[in-house]
Amino acid sequence: MGKHELFTGVDRLELLGYEIIALISRGYKETITEIERQMEKENILQYVREKYAGELFNPFSDDAQYNYTDWNKALGKYSGWIEGQERRKYGIENEEDGLLLLLALILELVANREYNWTGLE
Q: Rounded to whole angstroms, what are the CA distances from 8 to 35, 66, 82?
């Protein structure tokens, strides 16, 4: 794969999941409302990257091979679908557990990629 060739779809999205685990482990929190708002704007990767720039092991720089546009679109599809359903669908009960919600959605996308991800429709 060439230096500037992008992965497609949600390939390597688990890297963002690992970063979210590290943030949660260090005590960082986000509200569900804010995470869903950023997902709806298809801006969640940039939001995390900018807010936690000094805390991320992977800076998710613009010259990386990952397809951030596809990541944002895939996560954005969940923004309206989960609203108010976080407890029933993922067991997430607290408004300040937005990072846990983001991690749950990343896990779902990675699992779907393994079995039936064909790209963004």
A: 23, 8, 25
Contact predicate 67/11, CB 8 Å: yes
Distance of alpha carbon 88 from alpha carbon 36, whole angstroms: 16
Structure tokens at 4: 């500037």
pLDDT reported for residue 6: 62
- Reported as a pLDDT band with limits 50, 70 and 90, residue 2 is very low
Closest C-alpha to 12, from 55, 45, 54, 47: 45
Question: Which of 21-25, 30-34, 79-83 is the least confident region?
Answer: 79-83
Half-sphere exposure of 15 (CA within 13 A, CB side): 19
Residues in the chain: 121
| pLDDT given for residue 1 in this prediction | 41
